[in-house]
Amino acid sequence: MSNLEQTLSIIKPDAVERNLIEEIKSTFKNNNFKILKDKKIQITKTEAEEFYKVHQTKPFYNDLCEYLSSGPIVVMILERENAISENRKLMGATDPKKAEEGTLRKKYGISIDRNSVHGSDSIENAKIEINFFFS
Ligand code: IDP
Ligand code: MG
Known about the structure:
alpha+beta, Alpha-Beta Plaits, 4-stranded antiparallel β-sheet, 7 helices, 41% helix, binds inosine-5'-diphosphate, binds magnesium ion
């Protein structure tokens, strides 16, 4: 059974700053993701607050929004079979210290708040997040 999905991926400021864009894109392609759309942008803090509003009650919300808007990011629509869960697997755990060997966050993440990549966590959020950046 085929289950072609699209998910939103972000290469976060810490990874863009370290010139990891091409390396991370290659990893997606080597793992059978198609990059349907991509763009390098910088968002405002207000936009980051909207994007991360599910986390608005968390103690790290303000820092998180400051961070995501602190420098250029690359936003991408990724497509493959089971793209949402496959991307989450490839990213690894939120905290790079807990991420499995071979995952993007293990390889590139600096810390829980500088963890290099974002990926949608559900079909519903993938739609919302893709719309947020590409509409
Ligand atoms: P996810 O990115 O793996 O989906 P979420 O729980 O959705 O993780 O959190 C969103 C982002 O907020 C994380 O990627 C991370 O950068 C940051 N974050 C999550 N938990 C913490 C924390 O306990 N302290 C600081 N930052 C956090
Ligand atoms: Mg999340």
